Structure formats: C-alpha cells, structure tokens
Amino acid sequence: TVLVVDFGAQYAQLIARRVRECHVFSEIVPSTMPAAEMLAKRPKAIILSGGPSSVYEEGAPIAPDGLFDLGVPTFGICYGHQVMAQALGGTVENSDVAEYGGATVAVTAPGMLFAGLPHEQAVWMSHRDFVSSAPAGFTVTASTDVTPVAGMEDRERGFFGVQFHPEVLHTEHGMEILRRFLYEGAGCRPNWTMVNIADESIEAVREQVGGKRAICALSGGVDSAVAAALVQRAIGDQLTCVFVDHGLLRKGEAEQVEKDFVAVTGVNLHVVDAQDRFLAALDGVTDPEDKRKIIGREFIRVFEEAAREIAGEQAAEPVEFLVQGTLYPDVVESGGGTGAANIKSHHNVGGLPEDLRFALVEPLRTLFKDEVRALGEQIGLPPEIVWRQPFPGPGLGIRIIGAVTRERLDILREADAIAREELTRAGLDRDIWQFPVVLLADVRSVGVQGDGRTYGHPIVLRPVTSEDAMTADWARLPYELLQRISTRITNEVREVNRVALDITSKPPGTIEWE
Ligand code: XMP
C-alpha cells in the first residue's frame, strides 16, 4: 500500500485516486497517526499531501516523529514538500507573493522525477510559503520565478518533493511524475487491477461470512447492486436481497431490478410491494423534511419485517450479516477510523432495532465511485446497472413539489421516462451527472393545445454536471434535445402543458428540489 498522509486539504483524496490510477493501492491516513502505526501498515511509499496551513502557524500539522527515519520512500507535495524541507533541515519562508493557479516551472536538474521531460512545464500551484533552501543532501530539480525550490530530491534516501500539485490535471506531466515516484522511486508494482480487486474482495467476504447468512437492501443504485453481486459471487445462496418497492421509483425500475439484476447474478430476491403503505404514510404531507423522514422510517420498518421473515425461514442458520455499499469517501469523511465509519454506515440503513443486530459486510469500503463502476463491469453486471445515474433513496417522493399521490406519481413517471429516453438517444447519458425531472404539482398555468384552453402543471428539467454531487452546474444540453423533450412531454403527458429548465448551479441550489 501507499499511504497518503492527509494534512487537511481536499487534495488527499485526489492523490489517493491518482495513485490507484497508476494501479497501486493507496489509503489515506491522518497526519496525527504515529509513525510506528504507519510502518505497521507496511507501506511501499508515503506521500505527504498538501494542506491549508503555513508551517509557521501555531498548531500547524507536522509530520509524525520519526517519519523520515522509517526507510520508506517519501514524496512531499505542496505543504508536504514544505514539511519535508523543514523537518530535514531546509528552510521555509513566508512570501508576500502567493502563487495560485497555473505557473511554469523550469527544470534545473532533471533528477529522477523530471528526467526526459521538457525543460519548461505547466504546473498548478496553490501556496504562499515556499522552500527557500533545500536540506543538505538534496538536489534542487525545479524552480519558478517566485519559488526557488519547486522540486527537490535526495534519491539515495528516497526523498522527493514538489511545490506544485502533480495530482491536478492542469499539471501537464503530473501523472508521469507520480508514476516515476511510485515505480522508480519506491519500486511499486502496478498490480492494483480490477481482476485482483474482484478476486480479493470475493475472498475477503467468504472469509468474513463463512457459512452464515447475509441480507442486503437493493436500492437499484450502482453501489448496492455491485456490493450485492460481489457478495453473491462469494457466498451464493447464503445471501438474500431485499428490494422494497415503495412506489416512488421511476418507470421500469422495479422491473429492471427484478429482471436484469436477478437474471445476470442469479441472486435470491425478496421483493416487498409496499406501494400502498408508503402512499398512505405520505398522504397530505408537503414538507420536504417530513417526507424524507416518513419515507426513511417506513423503509426501515418494511426492511425490518422482511429481515425477520427471511431470518425466520432459516431459523437453523440465523441471518448475521448485513451487506452495505459504503464507499471510501464516506469512510474518509467520517474520520477514516473504523469506529467512526460504522456510525455512518448504520445511518444508511437507519436505526435497526436491537434484536436485529447485524455485523456489516462492506465490500466497497476501500473503493471510489469510478472503481465501483469498473468493478461492476469486471464481475459482469450490465451497463444499464453499472452506469446508472445516482437516484435519491426517497425517489420521486421528493421530486413532486406538493403532496404525493398516485396520480401525480404517474404523471411524473411518464415525463421522467421521456426525458431519460431522449437523453439516452442523444448519447449523453455519461456526460451528465444526473437528470432530475420535477413536477410542480401545486402550480397550474394556462396553456393552449389544439383549439382548447388548458390549465395544467409545469415540469422542471434539472440536468446537472458534477464530480461528486457536493457542487454542481446546470448541464448545457443541446437546444434540439431540450426541444424534443419539451414537445414530447407536452404532447404525451396530458396533465402537463409547460416545461421549464432549471439553470441554477449548486450552490446556491441543491440538485434535488426537496
Ligand atoms: P442535493 O439535492 O443535496 O443532492 O444536492 C446531492 C446528491 O444526493 C442525492 N440525494 C440522496 N441520495 N438519499 C440518497 O440516497 C437521499 O435521501 C438523498 N437526497 C439527495 C441527490 O440525488 C444527489 O445525487
């Protein structure tokens, strides 16, 4: 493994992903982890990430004691570069001039990281402090107008540092520099491949679950689908999947889970038709938070009943495990430690009651979203499942603005199906992050259709682009496509006489309307 030491910047996750793109496994550890604990993970290399601090600030994070005596090749990036310089006897200075954004570095001595690369390179910078002199034993390999030591290395001891961000795409040769550190500087081998990941995860699940039984709630989303398929590969019929049809799904979704997923994986599926129950619970409710709470609560109750039923059927072998599609970003964001991460995972299923205690099986907890998709493909899931856009748990319930009724759900389902169909036909599925379609159920406007006056509801299209759903931008879909969607919706969905486009980014708008 390669340890990415997190000094508190958002870059640590990106660095970890880039390392994995070089087919080397990486994990993120906090900068407060003692060096001995890091060594116990037997890292092939250590990368010190960027961070928001100045090494001179009170309480600024520092490298753990003894980190540079571990004999592990180490690469400092940005703040990590400064930490390394300072710890090994170089000097770091405050500057009046910050360097943010694009810059050009000049290679002063190629060393290992820059050998054979152009003398001048575009890089991405984000710093104010700078290394003014490298520690003894280091060669200065690159500099800019404002940063005398933009690159340094001590190949003999296995220490490398750069002031810029190689993990950012704006750094022209960033990936090449990272690869050199990993392969040449640290002797890592590119063996983190999807075939290995699949094999190792399946083996790990087998070992964890043994001969016991497990259940999994399928949402229809990619994470739970890949997790379930993987566990099914590992333990076969010992797994039962529960699919709660709450009636808030999109057109064809329940069928897709029942047919496509089961056909491909051969998984045991327990479908609960709870449409009436959810509709009854949502009757007359308009407040978004109330809707979310009710849907979450009902989901847990239905799942709980199903779990009891399944457990009862198999009284001789109780269900001991619950499979969850927790991803690595959730694990990192909730503190990285196992304890903290579990709190979050339990939240995903909500508070299951005491007598339904499960041990968690989380086969995706070391993976990023794009790796989950690749893994899904590797284990043979169809593209319709693997490339599905995210869809919120509360479903169409939070895309009807106003109370949820069966009739309104039918209207929205039709409009949504048209929008999705046209997006797919235009070949743009993978270019946009998500395409919520929203029904303003309590709003009516006057229109004219044929010779008659209409008084119908508006539909709002909310296509967005995003990398992680934390921020988003409205997708610039081609006008012709928007026009086709608008025409078809107003022609084919009788109750809708107006189609609007949401052109709000996030922030200030969220992706969903509720
Ligand atoms: P917002 O609307 O907050 O949504 O910008 C960010 C992302 O999260 C999804 N979302 C949910 N997913 N359960 C989920 O599983 C939920 O309750 C939920 N609410 C929002 C949303 O679709 C978007 O991808």
TrEMBL record:
Pfam families: GATase, GMP_synt_C, NAD_synthase
Alphabetized GO MF terms: GMP synthase (glutamine-hydrolyzing) activity
Keyword Mitochondrion in record: no
PROSITE patterns: GATASE_TYPE_1 (PS51273), GMPS_ATP_PPASE (PS51553)
Keywords, in A-Z order: ATP-binding, Glutamine amidotransferase, GMP biosynthesis, Ligase, Nucleotide-binding, Purine biosynthesis
Domain GMPS ATP-PPase: 192-388
Active site positions, chain numbering: 78, 165, 167
Pathway recorded for this protein: Purine metabolism; GMP biosynthesis; GMP from XMP (L-Gln route): step 1/1
EC number: 6.3.5.2
SUPFAM superfamilies recorded: Adenine nucleotide alpha hydrolases-like, Class I glutamine amidotransferase-like, GMP synthetase C-terminal dimerisation domain
Binding residue positions for ATP: 219-225
Catalytic activity field: XMP + L-glutamine + ATP + H2O = GMP + L-glutamate + AMP + diphosphate + 2 H(+)
Function: Catalyzes the synthesis of GMP from XMP.
Assembly: Homodimer.
Protein name: GMP synthase [glutamine-hydrolyzing]
Source organism (scientific name): Actinomadura fibrosa
Gene giving rise to this polypeptide: guaA
